[in-house]
Automatic annotation (TrEMBL):
Regions that span the bilayer: 36-54, 75-97, 117-135, 142-160, 180-200, 221-248, 268-291, 303-323, 329-353, 365-387
Biological processes, Gene Ontology terms: iron ion transmembrane transport
Pfam family membership, one: Nramp
Domain of life: Bacteria
CC per GO annotation: plasma membrane
Name the UniProt record assigns to this protein: Divalent metal cation transporter
Subcellular location: Membrane
Keyword terms: Membrane, Transmembrane, Transmembrane helix
Membrane topology, from the record: Multi-pass membrane protein
């Protein structure tokens, strides 16, 4: 495989992985570990298998059709691509506000500045990536460097917390309890919303497409899930080491507690680095992927893609600094995001069997079964979540 291709494949994998590993990912993993203890290992194991199935379904269809997700959706049903793009962009904007806030918190821990000032500093970092001529290559390398940094720091904290690894390994296959909602939450948090398409669209933009590229696409998709999973597993072990000793996590900031209780003041500063890295890479991934869903609808957006991405980042930052995290928008986007994965994955699985979209390509039956299973379960839970959240939206 060419050196250039390896760089692009790793870049796409890390873009997907670091898009998934945001502030919510860190908190989610810590809280579930606190609730399920070592049995959370089983949840992680099952979610990894499902995540790989989702990614392979989506990335392979994007590659063989040589089209972005919204264009594939429009071929399945005219107008469907525009609807999906609306959901993706709305969710991307809402979660980017949270990502900017998380980055601000990272700078707050590291430098003592206010979260608002930290958010502006983080936005400047993200914007700088898209000011250079070859922004795609810089984005790839940025995601790789910060991704590796997060892995190293979380592995260190997991080591210092001295978790019961043997118990965690045993319970990963023989859990005391199985929390289905936790599994679905992890799947949605790792490959839900815009995250599903971050790497697939990046490969398409880099020219890696067609049936002949499927081995590379498979490798990149699995690598992306592997990176995100390594981070989740070691964060789980770090948190398990803390809770297994009977230590209590701060409910206001559970992941920060894990780092601080494991490694003291140094651990707390390391949390700042991890939070900043997770949040900034998620800001970049969210902005890039959201704008990629708009490129089909305007040649000007395609011509000035980097400028539109910068505006997307700046709007997210301005909203956070002036309003904070708008509750209505976050509730609505969160509820709608529960429907994005089953809708988009369902479209991709259906498209995999349409010759006008994929030509002579034959989709593996196992991937279809995985895809349909995830669509049905996520559609049910997504609808349930939407029904639960809408009364809260109107009550505000």
């Amino acid at each position: 495989m060419k050196k250039r291709n390896w760089s692009v494949l790793l870049g796409a994998a890390f873009l997907m992985a670091t898009s998934a590993v945001g502030p919510g990912f860190l908190t989610q993993t810590t809280v579930f570990t606190q609730q399920l203890a070592a049995s959370f290992g089983f949840v992680i194991l099952i979610s990894i298998v499902l995540d790989i199935g989702v990614q392979l379904n989506v990335w392979r269809v994007i590659a063989v059709s040589e089209r972005r997700a919204q264009d594939i959706a429009n071929m399945v049903l005219p107008g469907l691509g525009a609807f999906i793009s609306f959901l993706i962009v709305l969710g991307g904007l809402a979660f980017n506000i949270g990502n900017v806030g998380g980055a601000g918190l990272g700078f707050n821990v590291l430098l003592g500045v206010s979260p608002e000032v930290g958010a502006v500093m983080a936005a400047a970092m993200a914007v700088a990536v898209f000011l250079v001529h070859e922004a795609g290559k810089v984005m790839d390398r940025f995601a790789q460097v910060l991704g590796f940094l997060m892995i190293l720091l979380i592995v260190f904290v997991a080591f210092t917390s001295a978790p019961p690894v043997g118990v965690a390994l045993t319970k990963s296959f023989f859990p005391d309890e199985v929390d289905v909602l936790a599994i679905i939450t992890l799947v949605g948090g790792t490959v839900g919303g815009y995250i599903t398409f971050a790497g697939g669209h990046r490969l398409l933009d880099a020219g890696i497409k067609g049936k002949e590229s499927l081995p590379e696409v498979n490798a990149s998709a699995v690598s992306g899930i592997t990176v995100a999973s390594i981070i989740r597993i070691f964060l789980f072990l770090a948190a398990l080491g803390v809770v297994s000793k009977g230590l209590v996590l701060d409910p206001a900031n559970p992941p920060a507690s894990v780092f601080q209780l494991s490694a003291g003041v140094i651990g707390y500063k390391l949390f700042g680095v991890v939070m900043l890295s997770a949040a900034v890479t998620s800001v970049i991934g969210s902005a890039y992927t959201s704008v990629s869903f708009l490129k089909s609808f305007s040649r000007k957006i395609q011509a000035y893609e980097n400028g539109v991405i910068i505006v997307f980042i700046l709007v997210s930052t301005v909203i956070f600094v002036t309003i904070g995290q708008p509750v209505r928008l976050l509730i609505l986007a969160g509820a709608l995001n529960g429907l994005v994965l089953p809708l988009t994955l369902g479209v991709m699985v259906y498209a995999a069997y349409k010759p006008k979209i994929v030509g002579t390509y034959r989709h593996p039956l196992l991937l279809t079964v995985f895809g349909v299973l995830v669509v049905l379960v996520m559609a049910y839970l997504g609808g349930y979540t939407l029904v639960q959240q809408l009364p809260k939206l109107f009550a505000l």
